[in-house]
Known about the structure:
heteropentamer, B: mainly alpha, two-stranded antiparallel sheet, about 70% helix, C: mainly alpha, Cytochrome-c3 Hydrogenase, chain B, 3-stranded antiparallel beta sheet, about 50% helix
Amino acid sequence: MIFQIILLIMLAYVVGFIYMGLYRNITARIQGRYGPTVYQTFYDSIKLFSKKNSVSYGWMFYLGPVIMATGAVLTLILVPVFSDSDFLRSVTTQGNLFLLLYLMVLGPLGNALAVGTGGNPFGVMGVVRGLTRLIGLELPFYIAVVGLIIASNSSDIVHIIDLQKTTGLNILVHPFLFIAAMISMVGFFGASPFDIPGAPQEVYSGPRTEFSGKFLALLMSQGSIFAFAKLVLIIDLFLGGADSLWMLVIKTFAIFITIIFIGIVYGRYKVEQAVDFLMKIPTLIGVIGLVRIIWFG
Amino acid sequence: MNSIFLLLNLLPILFLYQFGGDLHVSLSLTKEFTLSLSQTPLGTFFAYLSLISFLLVTIAQKSKKTSFSYYALQFLLSIAMLAIVLAGDFITFFIGWEIMTWSSYFLISKSSDIDTKSLQKYILFSLASAFSLIAGMVIAYSFANSFDFNVIQNSFHTMPFNIKVALIVLFSLSFFTKAGVIGLHYWVVDTYSKAPDLFSSILSAVMSKMGIYGLFLVYGHLVGYAELKDMFGVILNGTDFGYVLGWIGVITSIIATFKAITQDEVKRLLAYSSIAQLGYIIAVIGMGTSFGVAGAMYHTLIHTIIKLLLFINVAAIVAQTGKNKFSELGGLIYRTPVSFVMLLIGIIALAGMPPLGGFASKFMLYNAAIDSKFALILVGMLFSGAASFLYCYKLVYGIYLGHPTSKDLETQKEVPISYLIPQVILALLLVATGAFPGAFIKVINPILIEFSLNTIPYTSMGVMQSAVGNFNGLFIISAFVVIFVFILLLIWRIKSKAKNNLNRFDISYCGEVPSKNTQLHYGYGFGTDLYRIKFVNAILKRSSSPFYEALATQTKKTAGLLSRMYYGNIHNTMIIILLFFSALYFIGVN
Amino acid sequence: MKNDLENTIKIFHGPQHPGITGNMSVELDLLGETIKRAQTHVGYLHRGFEKLVERRTVVQAFTIVCRICVPEPDPNEENFARAVENLTGLEISEKAKYIRTMVLEMQRLATMFLWMGGQAGSIGLGLIPQWSVCDRDYMLDLFEELTGGRVYHMYAFPGGVRRDLPEGFLSRLSDLLDYYEKRIIVYNNTFFDNIIFKKRAIGVGIVNADDVIKNAYVGQVMRGCGIKKDVRKDMPYLMYDKLDFDIPVQSDGDVYARALVRRDEMLQSIKILRQIIKQMPSEGDILQKIPKHRKFKLPADDTYVQTESARGAMSYYMAGDGSEKIRRMQVRGPSLVHAYTLLEKLLVDSQLSDVAMTMNSLGICPPEIER
Amino acid sequence: MMESGFHGCDLDDSLKCKLEESGTQNTHSVMEKAAAWFRSRSIFVVAYGTGCGAIEMPPTFTSRYDAERMGVVGVATPRQADLIILSGYLAYKTLRRVIRTYEQMQKPKYIITLGSCPINGGMYWDSYNTIKKLDDYLPVDVSVVGCMPRPEAVIDGFSLLQKRIKNGEKAGWEKYDENLDFYKKNQKRVLGNHVDPSYETDWYNLENGSEV
Amino acid sequence: MIELISKLEKLSLELVQKQDYLYKVEVKKEQLESLLLSFLNEFGYITLDSINCRDDLEEGNFVITYCLLTPKRDHVVMVQTSIERENASLPSIHTFWPQAEIMEREMHEMFGVDFPGHPTLIDFALEYWDNIPPLRRDFDTLQYVNDMNPFRGQRDDALDAKVEMKKKREAKKAAKLKAEQEAAAKAELETQNNPSQEVQNEE
């Protein structure tokens, strides 16, 4: 099992980095330029790991990125990656969907402590923006997740995947929930128009302002692992999981490219506009889906 | 003095431990009035909860100069609470309730920064709560001809429907006031924030739980969940009654959460947070399912632990620095590291984050909602939970992180050890509940049996079992620790040298250099952005104080004679009121 | 008891900040993210141009005046050349006038494209800067062909222009204008009609129309408030009185209104350039007979010239003292009042997220504030 | 293109000698060579337009010239950056901020200068508010000449820097560490005693103390 | 415009047309504030475009020019006054035109003109400046620069520009001479050859 976990982390690391590289590359192509190589984010992270210095404001600053990475890895191992194999089944059944909802926020909160320790007002502003955005961002996602839990009468992801084999994919059965969750996902990936916390033109780099060298590298690495975990979670919940590596890549990439295409053509909301928007349209869509499940399902 | 009262506080615990289990004592005064104590699993749970809380707070009081009368009143309060939770009939219950009210009133008045307005608010609402209770008692007595809980329980289904409703509403109002449901929370914030710092922990952690105990007593014991279901009918998978209560709880929770974020005073934030957390409990308490009751019980336990921890922590910081506002604190992390870690554990649990106990209780609450298919209520609870991250972060940032706002904060020392001991105990409890979420099910199951509900399956200490999935707390916490240590070692090994003792002003500041006088602490501005969000602004703009102030002025205007009492000596007023209602009571009885 | 204003935190927006236009800084006092006080700081680019010019002859000074404002050097050259012409009484030929007008309009287009990149970048719309800066580069290519320099042209010499048009230049310019017209439609769809840009920009940074006239706000700030004024129409210079064009105005006075004014001005510039291409005389001196060894002697007199730059009226005050050196040359760019009087006022009670956007829409260019 | 080979310092002969020795290789192990390769492939540039050369930064980084394909990408804060591009003349007021920004960057760190002004003052050689020789105050790795240098030239400067990083040549930050006294003395000479901040480095305090 | 001329004549001031859109009126320092006020309130010149300052070191005074515009913005009127260089001081007009605050701040820094009643006479572009104000003409920027910033030393293989220019000129001259000589020689040769050519042609 330990071996499997390490294998999974490495898979997530590689796939996550390639996705992040693809993100930059595809964005560049749309912008009409050649763009960096697919491995560019990997180079970046190795370079940052090999920096000779990295500043730290004390032990809490040191631990913040570690907590964040822990949250990401823990999320990863609790999300079932392959639907039919026994791969890490024994681990993923230890958790449930509610646990994942909270684990997804654990990392950012841990990092927020480090940001606060650094004491940079820009960083704290970024954190506050992030947490404020979270109010709006979580709402449609919660609705979608609650809808799924009630529809499949289980908060066990493995069960939700299995159920889709008989009832059909959730994206078709509960399209409203999928749309609501997808809009949230755009925000969870930090894509426009919800890339508010780290907006460079406004808050200088947001929560990452003070992180350098290995800390930044750790944040980047966990970001790619986390991105992979989130993609897998979405396909588990709505696309019936993946039974092979190819299906995994195809399905996650489909979600991923959607997020890129949404992100590239929009600017950035202000935080209050983002929350207002998220509380209106996606929430409404989600509530329609939810009511459909409860009263007519 | 401290050690004496420490021993004195230990006594009831030992007593309960030794003689507890199935305690039944009764003392007949007259034919009709019998004072009786009868121990139920529910009462035992609350008894231990409150007694241990008192013990821990007494430990913390060691380094704070405290008068004899304060200790005595506090002990009296603990005994009163014991009387409430062990009471077998309404007379005992009410006596305990009144002693609790009055002793707490005098304790609050001992605070240095209390003002008469807050005190009046507290006592008026307490009295209103008591009157509502009395009215309920009297009505119940008039039908059951007894104050004994068991007699009332047995004769409840024979009462007419409107009487049943009236009883439930009266009792609910009384206990809602104590718990601070939104609309009736007017007294809570002022009282919590202005009471003596350590006593605030009692108020929030224990006294508000007396309201919850009362609700359990009424819904579970006197009325019975089955009766509730019969009375009000079924919606989705739960009861109509539970649905209404669920919305009350969720709305309480959401409003209080947003209010908490915008507070500048530390204890006000905690007070609002307390209201919000009790909102969760109220949201599930009426559902009438085993998960509803279990979730409410579990959250009662966890909230008591958290709020004791946080209030003691804050009390220590206030005592140490003399400051109680986020705009005046900041940057204490390396001055008071132990306190910081304790607060951190507290807020992780408060936010409901795994792997600590906070998540276990939240999971129970959510399961209860899922069980009844109250999806929107569940979404509301989750939403309020997401918003609560903001005030959790504000709490830790405002006090410990960021930049010190004044020079004397830079030379603070760690708080006295007597404050730390209870905090460490409570933090360990949180870790334990996180690692062994299933252990508490054993405590809950007897209560469920008492309420004639299904028990919750129990597999092992580490696993929390539920109808819609389970989680293994032990696995989560150990996986968390293992991964954490692994990544830490990995990072440690990387040769990128970390400059550890960087000056706090050495920040990226757009090429400029902040000076010692540059204000960099974000504590005050934290949360002001919420006013720009339309939905949140609509919540924050509203306040119950205009309503109550208008009520007060109207009362003053109309009741010309009576209004003089409000201006006069508060004690006289109270005595008059008490006499008036005792007279009413005797008229009613006869 | 501290009040809101005493509990603000202080941050600097610049000079080392991605959201600042150039090398300047705004000191902000924030309550939450609401700005309670703003103070502009400049001087990071101060080179003392006015001192340098005093130590130089006209020809020597001619090479450095274009560096006063980096994003659009040509109005500076035009102002300088015209001031010298005014003082020495030089008259320039019609062809030189046409070429100068053309260069000014080309520069206006190039600056607008750069502005569009900045404005879109300030709201995090990364696509537009990538496109528009590239589109601007095609104009720079033409500049390079015409003058030899991409950014600094040193082209409008007192008495005419430095070089004649290369062969086939006008047809290439015409092709580029065709391309730009197509592109502006694309930008209109992706940027000006972008729902998020509208949401962010409408109602932000509203300039009061009464202040505009008195406080000498110029350019799009003025025209965004519905005041139809333009130096090209009011005090026509070069060939502008012979060319047919409109002054676009909007009435709202906010960031979005200014953006729309700029978009319409781009279309007007294309219109002007098309007319110039049609009317450009084939014959004519490009450089008037100027003193031997280009030794201009400026009389002991002073003059004041104004040119409509892409961001508003830019004025030069120049005085000679009868020698070859310039006694005094003072630059009054549009940014001076915008960056201080206007920006400090606009930012109060707006949010941190609006700062970059507001600055971009005012068209602030720090090097011309402090020279 | 011009490599920084000048170290004409009129102040201290002993320091001068040390400066001229630098420029040798210092990577030995395989790990260091690999790290050097990765460093050359990924260069983060801090967003700071110090002078007129900043006008050629947008074309360099956007779709026509696209420096990102070489791994050169802009970041907001100095903490994350490897490279600072000093795009043109430096006023004294800016020099203060640039030194501050440079010191906040994490090693290894590099400086590229654009234009003639940082080399010898350029057009502004007689301006009372700009410095003439930047390498007296900060160690320059690559100077790209021209006014402005074209984006192609800037990209050529990037590739030269990448080559030097890959070869493991001694970079500016090492010189800065070794000859800190020299640089600090020069900085103090032009900026006077108003060099912020006092807590970062002790030179100012020490010298102030000795002067008094 | 005629109106304005007549109004100014009442104040015994003369309006001079300098260019098509440019007029100038000179005024004594004492009259300045009241004239500016009447421009603002009576004549309708409500826009203050800029305040310019010129240092006439030889005459010992500063020449201050206020450029004013009407709302039509179709011509500029320069109101010019001159003040003593020593202890130069002017009334501040920031209360009438807010933008004058920053212009006066700049003038204070660059010329050392004092503005009594001005609220923010702080640094504008310079920082910690302790010399005489830089735009005064008695401030010698070359001297200052040489004191602060030494020139870059030469490279060892660097060549002296003057010598090289001289060499180049001489080489050019020599080449020219040589070319002339060659041409002459050629011409001579041609003249020598011509006959033969002619002869050949004749043949």
